Amino acid sequence: MSFRLAAYAVCIEDGQVLLARHIPASGETNWTLPGGKVEHAEDPFDAVTRELAEETGYHGTTERLLGVDSRVISAAASHSGAEHQNVGIFYRVRVTGGQLRPEPNGATTEPTWTSIPDVDRLRRSSLVDIGLALARTLPATGHVAAVPVGGLVQH
Q: Count of domains in the chain?
């Protein structure tokens, strides 16, 4: 089983959420939250603003921890053909500056502010739904109930 620890920025302003188009090495593109892998010896609190800057050009301030999501993707559903566990740490981040731009030579492009009601029509990562659910409900435990994967939502 592979394992990944990642930090994700949930940036919401005026009824819009900041998304970026993920371009995987193989497969169809989808929309996701800015964020990604926590590097060795890196604090996830620092990783989330680093990833925001890398993927969108924006600088941000972390306002609060929203929660943690841990999910196992079966070998059949995984792109690698092996079971995979992703532990995502979701933070509410406020954009404080910078210039919106795509990630140079990266796996994400087209950072875009998207109306929250329009998110349902997008082909998106389940991370988007998890982040929005955490931002909406602010669960005291920081744990979001399982988000069903199907339709337009992708792992």
A: 1
